[in-house]
Amino acid sequence: MSQVSTSTTAEKPEEKKRNEALRCTVVSIEKSDGGPGGESENDWYRYVIDSPGSPITGYRRGKKSEIVKYLNECAVQLEDRINNRRAPRASAGRPKKS
Question: Of 29, 27, 63, which is closest to residue 47 (Cα–Cα)?
Answer without folding.
Answer: 29
